[in-house]
Amino acid sequence: MKKIIDAHCDVLWKLYEDPTRSFTNSPDLHLTYNQLVSEGAKMQAFALFVDPIVPTHLQYEAVLEMLQLYEKEVLGKHAGMKPILSKKDLQQLSANQIGAMLTVEGCDWIDENLDRLTFLIRKGVKAVGLTWNHVNKLADGAMEPRGAGLTSLGFKVIEHLNKHLILTDVSHLSERAFWDVLTVAEYPIASHSNVATLCPHPRNLKDDQIKAMIDVDGWMGITFVPFFLTKNEKATIQDVLRHVEYVCSLGGENNLGFGSDFDGIKETVVGLSSYKDYSNLINELQKHYSERLVRGFLGENFLKRLPS
Ligand SMILES: [Zn+2]
């Protein structure tokens, strides 16, 4: 059994965008229930991400609708999907169950008294990224030319996440905000980011950032976004392996895993066109790494980082 844990996908946004899509088997989704079953998924993270085409004042409504879709379409229609509300839930999954974990990608909808965030944590959110690519009330995202750090509300939100034993996701933050987060976050991860030295892009992490994540015993998910993997026209599975190997060379072999970004990307890696291709990646990993390391990359390293 493969037991894949994948820390990031945007399929909830795809279901929100077009509710006629079926999470069970829509051919235009990268990630479906049937594919999770056939590939041997252990747990999939489902991001609550609202595209900036939705005006800020309507974003929380969209989040609530996506939450409903998650409960109805992902959990409600598949008895085999089990919501992960605690680390114990994940550890106690039976062989034929697949865990589903809610995450947040961007808090543009946040209410300053944090009640909305508390509500979503109660609903099962286990990891929170403060921003998407742009600025909001908490911080600057990676694509803001100004590159500012956290606001006082941003710091307050992280204290809130610490208190509730929730992972803080640094993917998408500006470099300065990343360093601000590391001064306060007790449970930092980068759910879907690659190595900037191998592929310079503001969304990727520089060596000192990766080393800092390893030093605080955080976790980093290599992502299958072609233009975060290579500057070549086509990205291949070998590119994914290059990023894995680089993080290992910095000492991160136990802090590493995957956050595919399936259904959040238009272009895909050659040989990794959807979740059903995870086997191709696993076959390549097995050629280069011990069984223990591959098990760590595929899921056990993430499991260890989950605070509760
Ligand atoms: Zn993203």
What does this protein look like?
The protein is globular. The chain starts with a strand and ends with a helix. Strand 6, helix 7 and strand 7 form a beta-alpha-beta unit. Strands 1, 2, 3, 4, 5, 6, 7, 8 and 9 form a nine-stranded parallel sheet that branches. The protein is α/β, with parallel strands linked by helices. It is built from twelve helices and nine strands. It has a single domain, classed as TIM Barrel, CATH 3.20.20.140. The protein binds zinc ion. Zinc ion binds next to loops.
Structural domain count: 1
CATH superfamily descriptor: Metal-dependent hydrolases
Sheet with the most strands? Answer: 9 strands, parallel
Label the overall shape. globular
Given helix and strand content, the structural type is alpha/beta
Topology:
Elements: E1 4-6, H1 11-17, H2 33-39, E2 41-48, H3 56-76, E3 81-83, H4 87-91, E4 98-105, H5 115-123, E5 125-129, H6 152-163, E6 167-169, H7 175-184, E7 188-190, H8 207-215, E8 219-222, H9 226-229, H10 237-249, E9 256-258, H11 278-288, H12 291-305
Parallel strand pairs: 1-2, 2-4, 3-4, 4-5, 5-6, 6-7, 7-8, 8-9
The structure holds zinc ion.
Task: List its traits.
binds zinc ion, Membrane dipeptidase, 40% helix, alpha/beta, TIM Barrel, Metal_Hydrolase, 9 strands, 308 residues, metallodipeptidase activity, Pept_M19, 9-stranded parallel beta sheet
Q: Quick summary of this structure?
A:
One of its GO terms (molecular function) is metallodipeptidase activity. With 308 residues, this protein is of the alpha/beta class. It has helices spanning 11-17, 33-39, 56-76, 87-91, 115-123, 152-163, 175-184, 207-215, 226-229, 237-249, 278-288, 291-305; strands at residues 4-6, 41-48, 81-83, 98-105, 125-129, 167-169, 188-190, 219-222, 256-258.
